[in-house]
Amino acid sequence: MQNLLSMKDLTIEDITAILDRAEILKHYGIREMSEKYMISNLFFEPSTRTKMSFEVAERKLGLEVIPFESGFSSVLKGESLYDTLRTLEEIGMDAVVIRHPEERYYEELVGNLNLAIINGGDGSGQHPTQSLLDLFTIKEAFGGFKGLNVLIAGDIVHSRVAKSNADALKKLGANVTFLCPPQWAGEFDSVSEWEGTIETSDVVMLLRVQHERHDGETGFTKEEYHRKYGLTVEREASMKPGSIIMHPAPFNRDVEIAGSLVEGRRSRIFKQVENGVYIRSAILETILKGRELTWRKSLKMPMY
Q1: Rg (CA), the chain
Q2: Residue 57, annotated as binding a ligand
Q3: Domains of the chain
Q4: I need a surface site. Which of 23, 65, 242, 279 has the fewest CB within 10 A?
Protein backbone atom coordinates (compact mmCIF):
# COMPACT_ATOMS: atom_id res chain seq x y z
CA MET A 1 0.00 0.00 0.00
CA GLN A 2 1.55 3.28 -1.16
CA ASN A 3 -1.22 5.72 -0.07
CA LEU A 4 -4.54 5.59 1.79
CA LEU A 5 -7.14 7.70 0.02
CA SER A 6 -10.51 5.95 -0.01
CA MET A 7 -12.11 2.80 1.38
CA LYS A 8 -13.16 2.03 -2.20
CA ASP A 9 -9.50 1.31 -2.98
CA LEU A 10 -9.01 -1.29 -0.23
CA THR A 11 -9.55 -5.01 -0.72
CA ILE A 12 -10.86 -7.25 2.04
CA GLU A 13 -7.29 -8.48 2.42
CA ASP A 14 -6.00 -4.91 2.85
CA ILE A 15 -8.61 -4.17 5.51
CA THR A 16 -7.99 -7.42 7.35
CA ALA A 17 -4.22 -6.86 7.40
CA ILE A 18 -4.59 -3.39 8.97
CA LEU A 19 -7.12 -4.61 11.55
CA ASP A 20 -4.89 -7.53 12.48
CA ARG A 21 -1.85 -5.31 12.84
CA ALA A 22 -3.80 -2.84 15.01
CA GLU A 23 -4.84 -5.74 17.27
CA ILE A 24 -1.20 -6.75 17.72
CA LEU A 25 -0.19 -3.18 18.51
CA LYS A 26 -3.01 -2.86 21.04
CA HIS A 27 -2.07 -6.06 22.86
CA TYR A 28 1.72 -5.80 22.71
CA GLY A 29 2.33 -2.07 22.48
CA ILE A 30 3.40 0.36 19.77
CA ARG A 31 7.14 0.38 19.20
CA GLU A 32 9.41 2.73 17.32
CA MET A 33 10.12 1.85 13.71
CA SER A 34 13.68 0.89 12.85
CA GLU A 35 13.88 3.47 10.05
CA LYS A 36 13.48 7.19 10.67
CA TYR A 37 10.80 8.95 8.67
CA MET A 38 9.56 12.53 8.52
CA ILE A 39 5.84 13.26 8.40
CA SER A 40 3.62 16.31 8.53
CA ASN A 41 -0.09 16.73 9.29
CA LEU A 42 -1.81 19.22 7.00
CA PHE A 43 -5.26 20.02 8.39
CA PHE A 44 -7.22 22.64 6.47
CA GLU A 45 -10.37 21.92 8.52
CA PRO A 46 -10.76 21.75 12.30
CA SER A 47 -10.01 18.42 13.98
CA THR A 48 -9.39 17.12 17.49
CA ARG A 49 -9.53 13.31 17.39
CA THR A 50 -8.05 12.63 13.96
CA LYS A 51 -5.22 15.14 14.22
CA MET A 52 -4.27 14.37 17.80
CA SER A 53 -4.45 10.58 17.46
CA PHE A 54 -2.26 10.75 14.35
CA GLU A 55 0.28 12.83 16.27
CA VAL A 56 0.26 10.39 19.18
CA ALA A 57 0.65 7.44 16.80
CA GLU A 58 3.49 9.17 14.93
CA ARG A 59 5.40 9.92 18.10
CA LYS A 60 4.93 6.40 19.48
CA LEU A 61 6.35 5.07 16.20
CA GLY A 62 9.37 7.34 16.55
CA LEU A 63 8.56 9.44 13.48
CA GLU A 64 9.89 12.97 13.11
CA VAL A 65 6.73 15.09 13.15
CA ILE A 66 7.23 18.38 11.30
CA PRO A 67 4.62 20.98 12.32
CA PHE A 68 2.41 22.54 9.65
CA GLU A 69 -0.11 25.27 10.38
CA SER A 70 -2.38 26.05 7.45
CA GLY A 71 -3.17 29.49 8.86
CA PHE A 72 0.50 30.46 8.68
CA SER A 73 1.47 28.77 5.42
CA SER A 74 1.91 30.02 1.85
CA VAL A 75 -1.55 28.63 1.08
CA LEU A 76 -2.78 32.01 2.31
CA LYS A 77 -0.72 33.60 -0.45
CA GLY A 78 -2.40 31.49 -3.10
CA GLU A 79 -0.03 28.52 -3.23
CA SER A 80 -1.71 25.36 -4.54
CA LEU A 81 -1.88 22.17 -2.51
CA TYR A 82 0.31 20.45 -5.11
CA ASP A 83 3.02 23.11 -4.84
CA THR A 84 2.91 22.93 -1.05
CA LEU A 85 3.36 19.15 -1.12
CA ARG A 86 6.05 19.35 -3.80
CA THR A 87 7.94 21.70 -1.49
CA LEU A 88 7.58 19.31 1.46
CA GLU A 89 8.74 16.43 -0.70
CA GLU A 90 11.87 18.32 -1.78
CA ILE A 91 12.88 19.13 1.80
CA GLY A 92 12.70 15.46 2.74
CA MET A 93 9.17 14.64 3.87
CA ASP A 94 8.24 10.96 3.56
CA ALA A 95 4.51 11.21 4.19
CA VAL A 96 1.67 13.63 4.87
CA VAL A 97 -1.73 13.29 6.49
CA ILE A 98 -4.20 15.70 4.88
CA ARG A 99 -7.67 16.89 5.83
CA HIS A 100 -9.13 19.15 3.17
CA PRO A 101 -12.57 20.69 2.48
CA GLU A 102 -12.42 19.74 -1.21
CA GLU A 103 -13.73 16.29 -2.14
CA ARG A 104 -11.20 14.06 -3.90
CA TYR A 105 -8.47 16.67 -3.54
CA TYR A 106 -5.98 13.83 -3.90
CA GLU A 107 -6.84 12.95 -7.50
CA GLU A 108 -4.53 15.61 -8.94
CA LEU A 109 -1.72 14.65 -6.55
CA VAL A 110 -1.38 10.87 -6.82
CA GLY A 111 1.12 9.92 -9.49
CA ASN A 112 2.74 13.34 -9.46
CA LEU A 113 4.37 13.10 -6.04
CA ASN A 114 6.66 10.59 -4.39
CA LEU A 115 5.67 11.17 -0.78
CA ALA A 116 2.88 9.09 0.78
CA ILE A 117 -0.56 10.64 1.17
CA ILE A 118 -2.96 9.55 3.92
CA ASN A 119 -6.43 11.02 3.61
CA GLY A 120 -7.61 12.40 6.95
CA GLY A 121 -10.96 13.41 5.44
CA ASP A 122 -11.95 15.12 2.19
CA GLY A 123 -15.01 17.33 2.36
CA SER A 124 -18.12 15.14 2.30
CA GLY A 125 -16.20 12.43 0.45
CA GLN A 126 -14.21 9.82 2.35
CA HIS A 127 -12.63 9.31 5.79
CA PRO A 128 -10.80 5.98 5.51
CA THR A 129 -8.89 6.10 8.80
CA GLN A 130 -12.11 6.74 10.74
CA SER A 131 -13.77 3.87 8.91
CA LEU A 132 -10.92 1.51 9.78
CA LEU A 133 -11.06 2.39 13.48
CA ASP A 134 -14.84 1.91 13.38
CA LEU A 135 -14.33 -1.51 11.82
CA PHE A 136 -11.75 -2.37 14.46
CA THR A 137 -14.19 -1.39 17.22
CA ILE A 138 -16.98 -3.46 15.67
CA LYS A 139 -14.68 -6.45 15.27
CA GLU A 140 -13.69 -6.21 18.95
CA ALA A 141 -17.37 -6.37 19.90
CA PHE A 142 -18.57 -9.10 17.52
CA GLY A 143 -15.48 -10.89 16.19
CA GLY A 144 -16.43 -10.25 12.55
CA PHE A 145 -18.86 -8.53 10.19
CA LYS A 146 -20.75 -11.07 8.12
CA GLY A 147 -24.47 -10.85 8.73
CA LEU A 148 -24.29 -7.93 11.19
CA ASN A 149 -27.05 -5.33 10.95
CA VAL A 150 -25.59 -1.81 11.07
CA LEU A 151 -27.87 1.22 11.30
CA ILE A 152 -26.24 4.56 10.40
CA ALA A 153 -28.37 7.53 11.42
CA GLY A 154 -27.89 11.24 10.87
CA ASP A 155 -26.62 13.70 8.28
CA ILE A 156 -25.84 11.08 5.63
CA VAL A 157 -25.47 13.34 2.61
CA HIS A 158 -22.65 15.36 4.19
CA SER A 159 -20.97 12.49 6.02
CA ARG A 160 -17.65 11.13 4.75
CA VAL A 161 -17.88 8.62 7.62
CA ALA A 162 -21.18 7.24 6.31
CA LYS A 163 -19.82 6.86 2.79
CA SER A 164 -16.58 5.20 3.91
CA ASN A 165 -18.31 2.81 6.28
CA ALA A 166 -20.99 1.92 3.75
CA ASP A 167 -18.32 0.85 1.26
CA ALA A 168 -16.33 -1.13 3.81
CA LEU A 169 -19.14 -2.80 5.75
CA LYS A 170 -20.97 -4.03 2.66
CA LYS A 171 -17.69 -5.37 1.28
CA LEU A 172 -17.19 -7.29 4.52
CA GLY A 173 -20.68 -8.82 4.46
CA ALA A 174 -22.63 -6.58 6.85
CA ASN A 175 -26.14 -5.27 6.19
CA VAL A 176 -26.26 -1.46 6.27
CA THR A 177 -29.38 0.66 6.73
CA PHE A 178 -29.46 4.47 6.65
CA LEU A 179 -31.86 6.55 8.72
CA CYS A 180 -32.24 10.28 8.15
CA PRO A 181 -34.59 13.00 6.99
CA PRO A 182 -35.47 12.14 3.35
CA GLN A 183 -33.68 15.24 2.05
CA TRP A 184 -30.42 14.16 3.72
CA ALA A 185 -30.13 10.73 2.11
CA GLY A 186 -28.01 11.77 -0.85
CA GLU A 187 -27.09 8.76 -3.01
CA PHE A 188 -28.38 6.19 -0.51
CA ASP A 189 -31.75 4.55 0.01
CA SER A 190 -32.89 5.37 3.53
CA VAL A 191 -35.66 5.07 6.08
CA SER A 192 -37.00 7.88 8.23
CA GLU A 193 -38.52 5.90 11.10
CA TRP A 194 -36.65 4.10 13.90
CA GLU A 195 -39.38 1.55 14.46
CA GLY A 196 -38.67 -1.72 12.68
CA THR A 197 -34.93 -1.09 12.36
CA ILE A 198 -33.49 -0.34 15.78
CA GLU A 199 -34.87 -3.54 17.30
CA THR A 200 -32.81 -5.72 14.93
CA SER A 201 -29.64 -3.61 14.70
CA ASP A 202 -26.37 -4.89 16.13
CA VAL A 203 -24.66 -1.52 15.69
CA VAL A 204 -26.32 1.88 15.88
CA MET A 205 -23.93 4.52 14.54
CA LEU A 206 -24.94 8.13 15.03
CA LEU A 207 -23.65 11.03 12.93
CA ARG A 208 -23.35 14.70 13.78
CA VAL A 209 -25.57 17.22 12.03
CA GLN A 210 -22.99 19.19 10.04
CA HIS A 211 -24.35 22.70 10.40
CA GLU A 212 -21.32 24.15 8.61
CA ARG A 213 -22.30 22.30 5.42
CA HIS A 214 -25.96 23.34 5.69
CA ASP A 215 -25.03 27.04 5.83
CA GLY A 216 -26.50 26.99 9.32
CA GLU A 217 -30.04 26.13 8.14
CA THR A 218 -31.10 22.52 8.76
CA GLY A 219 -34.85 23.02 9.02
CA PHE A 220 -34.93 21.53 12.53
CA THR A 221 -34.50 22.87 16.01
CA LYS A 222 -32.23 20.77 18.23
CA GLU A 223 -35.26 19.52 20.13
CA GLU A 224 -37.17 18.60 16.98
CA TYR A 225 -34.25 16.72 15.53
CA HIS A 226 -33.62 14.77 18.72
CA ARG A 227 -37.28 13.86 19.06
CA LYS A 228 -37.62 12.51 15.50
CA TYR A 229 -34.15 11.40 14.42
CA GLY A 230 -32.01 11.23 17.55
CA LEU A 231 -31.21 8.19 19.67
CA THR A 232 -33.36 8.88 22.71
CA VAL A 233 -33.31 6.97 25.98
CA GLU A 234 -36.63 5.38 25.02
CA ARG A 235 -35.27 4.15 21.68
CA GLU A 236 -32.11 2.79 23.30
CA ALA A 237 -34.31 0.67 25.57
CA SER A 238 -35.67 -1.15 22.50
CA MET A 239 -32.22 -2.13 21.21
CA LYS A 240 -31.44 -5.86 21.09
CA PRO A 241 -29.23 -7.44 23.78
CA GLY A 242 -25.53 -7.12 23.01
CA SER A 243 -25.94 -4.31 20.51
CA ILE A 244 -23.63 -1.30 20.66
CA ILE A 245 -23.74 2.46 20.05
CA MET A 246 -21.08 4.29 18.06
CA HIS A 247 -20.37 7.86 16.99
CA PRO A 248 -17.30 9.25 15.16
CA ALA A 249 -17.57 12.47 17.18
CA PRO A 250 -17.68 15.32 17.86
CA PHE A 251 -21.14 14.60 19.21
CA ASN A 252 -23.91 16.95 20.24
CA ARG A 253 -25.50 15.64 23.41
CA ASP A 254 -29.28 15.60 23.30
CA VAL A 255 -29.33 16.23 19.57
CA GLU A 256 -28.26 13.08 17.71
CA ILE A 257 -27.78 11.15 20.95
CA ALA A 258 -29.17 11.51 24.45
CA GLY A 259 -26.45 12.81 26.74
CA SER A 260 -26.83 9.96 29.22
CA LEU A 261 -26.11 7.38 26.49
CA VAL A 262 -22.71 8.78 25.47
CA GLU A 263 -20.97 6.89 28.29
CA GLY A 264 -23.65 4.28 28.83
CA ARG A 265 -23.19 0.51 28.89
CA ARG A 266 -23.74 0.10 25.14
CA SER A 267 -21.55 2.98 24.10
CA ARG A 268 -18.24 2.42 22.32
CA ILE A 269 -17.75 6.11 21.54
CA PHE A 270 -14.64 6.67 23.65
CA LYS A 271 -13.39 3.19 22.77
CA GLN A 272 -13.39 4.40 19.16
CA VAL A 273 -11.15 7.29 20.19
CA GLU A 274 -8.73 4.91 21.93
CA ASN A 275 -8.69 2.57 18.95
CA GLY A 276 -7.85 5.44 16.63
CA VAL A 277 -4.25 5.49 17.88
CA TYR A 278 -3.74 1.77 17.16
CA ILE A 279 -5.38 1.88 13.74
CA ARG A 280 -3.44 4.96 12.66
CA SER A 281 -0.21 3.41 13.91
CA ALA A 282 -0.96 0.30 11.83
CA ILE A 283 -1.71 2.45 8.76
CA LEU A 284 1.51 4.44 9.12
CA GLU A 285 3.57 1.28 9.55
CA THR A 286 1.95 -0.39 6.56
CA ILE A 287 2.43 2.53 4.21
CA LEU A 288 5.92 3.57 5.27
CA LYS A 289 7.30 0.03 5.27
CA GLY A 290 5.65 -0.68 1.94
CA ARG A 291 7.18 2.40 0.34
CA GLU A 292 10.58 1.57 1.85
CA LEU A 293 10.55 -1.89 0.28
CA THR A 294 9.51 -0.45 -3.09
CA TRP A 295 12.30 2.12 -2.92
CA ARG A 296 14.93 -0.49 -2.06
CA LYS A 297 13.77 -2.74 -4.90
CA SER A 298 13.96 0.13 -7.39
CA LEU A 299 17.57 0.80 -6.41
CA LYS A 300 18.39 -2.91 -6.18
CA MET A 301 19.41 -2.42 -2.58
CA PRO A 302 19.38 -5.24 -0.01
CA MET A 303 16.12 -5.54 1.98
CA TYR A 304 16.98 -6.07 5.60
Answers
A1: 20
A2: no
A3: 7-126+273-298 (3.40.50.1370), 128-272 (3.40.50.1370)
A4: 242
Tell whether residue 241 is among the known ligand binding residues: no
Number of Cβ within 10 Å of residue 66's Cβ equals 14
Question: What is the chain's mean pLDDT, rounded?
Answer: 91
**pLDDT value at position 1?**
86
**What is the pLDDT confidence band of residue 214, given thresholds at 50, 70 and 90?**
low
77 is in an annotated binding site: yes
99 annotated as ligand-binding: yes
pLDDT at 104 over 90: yes
CB atoms inside a 10 Å sphere around CB 261: 24
